[in-house]
Amino acid sequence: METQSSLNKDERIEIRLSSSDKQVFMKAQKLSGDKTFSSFIVRVVKEKAEEIVAKNESIIASEKDKEKFFEAVFGNPQPNQKLIDAANKYKSQTALL
């Protein structure tokens, strides 16, 4: 839920656009049911911005996961002591068969 401070609308931006773009945007605003042109623009831009951020964050997360996976698989070719002990235990148990 948004906090009171995030509901304050004290920031402004200015954009310049062609009249044909504005006509398309205004038609879309009327079709969307948004009460004002500003609310339509803010809603649409915010939705797209959140989509871009989410996509970027998932790419970054998947890159980190990929790095961790390849490091785990190919990073250290030397087995640690637990793996050596497990291999020796397996060999001793299977040698009796």
Order of helices and strands: HHHH
Count of structural domains: 1
The major pleated sheet works out as:
none
Note poorly predicted spans.
Answer: none
Please, what is the average pLDDT?
87
Q: State which percent range the strand residues make up.
A: under 5%
Computed CA radius of gyration, to the nearest angstrom:
29 Å
- Secondary structure tally: strands: 0
> What is the helix fraction of residues, given as a range?
over 70%
Terminal Cα span? 65 Å
Q: What is the molecular shape?
A: rod-shaped
Number of helices: 4
Structural class: mainly alpha
Family: Belongs to the TacA antitoxin family.
Keywords: Toxin-antitoxin system
Pfam families: TacA1 (PF08681)
Organism: Aquiflexum gelatinilyticum
Tell me what you see in this structure.
- InterPro entries: Ribbon_hlx_hlx (IPR010985), TacA_1-like (IPR014795).
- Belongs to the TacA antitoxin family.
- This is DUF1778 domain-containing protein.
- Keywords: Toxin-antitoxin system.
- Pfam families: TacA1 (PF08681).
- The chain is mostly helical and about 100 residues long.
- It has one domain (about 15-95).
- Helices cover about 75% and strands about 0% of the residues.
- The chain has 4 helices and no strands.
- The protein is rod-shaped.
